[in-house]
């Protein structure tokens, strides 16, 4: 099917009626068609939000082929595993693209660590959410400023919290941008098949039992019977396995 519109690339996130009309066709589109649509409609006013997990690597590789204007940004929380930084350098060199990096506000991190220590996030759910808000949620708001859309590697299969993820969302949490999840319907097997078939680089931690990778002190390997996000904030109840970047409704 063809979903590429001949309309000029004008901030569709500011056009709710157009958003709803085009979302219907994108929901049934292939990932390649979705990315081609993003290229034609939004171009460089859209970006992949990447934590450099395996899904994000699939998106980056596909975007180089179908949406070369799409930018890539990451949130450097200051607590990422060294393997993630190594992969970012591989991406920069292999694909020849800049990776726009957003850090948390220095004063807020200094105040958090000075008053509450380096592992406050393990004391309570509220304390963990405060750390995520400082290190991730606020930097994401800055990263999205000036954009009309952002692209994520969310998949419905990843966890119980994500089973209802749509291919296209009207992101009211960030001013009404388009939020596109081109891999929403992909299985984990499909993701890894693409990685292997196209020799796409990926985070070394995936080979050590980490299906989902975030900050080093908040991520562990999972058991074979656990879901993909069981290694994130594993000391909490499973329904809380989100950091605030993707609010659960």
Automatic annotation (TrEMBL):
Active site: 243
Cofactor(s), names only, from the UniProt record: [4Fe-4S] cluster
Coiled-coil spans in chain: none
GO molecular function annotations of the record: 4 iron, 4 sulfur cluster binding; adenylyl-sulfate reductase (thioredoxin) activity; metal ion binding; phosphoadenylyl-sulfate reductase (thioredoxin) activity
Pathway: Sulfur metabolism; hydrogen sulfide biosynthesis; sulfite from sulfate
Record keyword Iron present: yes
Enzyme Commission number: 1.8.4.10
Keyword Ubl conjugation assigned: no
Keyword field: Cytoplasm, Iron, Iron-sulfur, Metal-binding, Oxidoreductase
Cited function: Catalyzes the formation of sulfite from adenosine 5'-phosphosulfate (APS) using thioredoxin as an electron donor.
Family: Belongs to the PAPS reductase family. CysH subfamily.
Name of this protein: Adenosine 5'-phosphosulfate reductase
Species per Swiss-Prot/TrEMBL record: Myxococcus llanfairpwllgwyngyllgogerychwyrndrobwllllantysiliogogogochensis
């Amino acid at each position: 099917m063809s979903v590429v519109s001949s309309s000029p690339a004008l901030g569709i996130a500011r056009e709710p009626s157009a958003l709803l009309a085009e979302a219907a066709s994108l929901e049934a589109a292939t990932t390649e068609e979705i990315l081609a649509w993003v290229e034609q409609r939004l171009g460089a006013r859209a970006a992949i939000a990447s934590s450099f997990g395996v899904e994000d690597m699939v998106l980056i590789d596909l975007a180089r082929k179908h949406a070369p204007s799409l930018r890539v940004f990451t949130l450097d929380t200051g607590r990422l595993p060294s393997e993630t930084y190594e992969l970012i350098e591989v991406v920069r060199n292999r694909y020849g693209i800049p990776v726009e990096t957003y850090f948390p506000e220095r004063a807020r991190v200094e105040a958090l660590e000075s008053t509450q220590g380096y592992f406050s996030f393990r004391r309570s759910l509220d304390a963990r959410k405060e750390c995520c808000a400082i290190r991730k949620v606020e930097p994401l708001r800055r990263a999205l400023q000036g954009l009309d859309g952002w692209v994520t590697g969310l998949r419905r299969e990843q966890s119980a919290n994500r089973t209802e993820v749509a291919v296209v969302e009207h992101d009211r949490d960030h001013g009404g941008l388009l939020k596109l999840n081109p891999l929403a319907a992909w299985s984990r097997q499909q993701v890894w098949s693409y990685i292997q078939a196209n020799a796409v680089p990926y985070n070394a931690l995936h080979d050590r039992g980490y299906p989902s990778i975030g900050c080093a002190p908040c991520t562990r390997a999972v058991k074979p019977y656990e879901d993909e996000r069981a290694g994130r904030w594993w000391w909490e109840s499973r329904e809380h396995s989100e950091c605030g970047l993707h609010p659960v409704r």
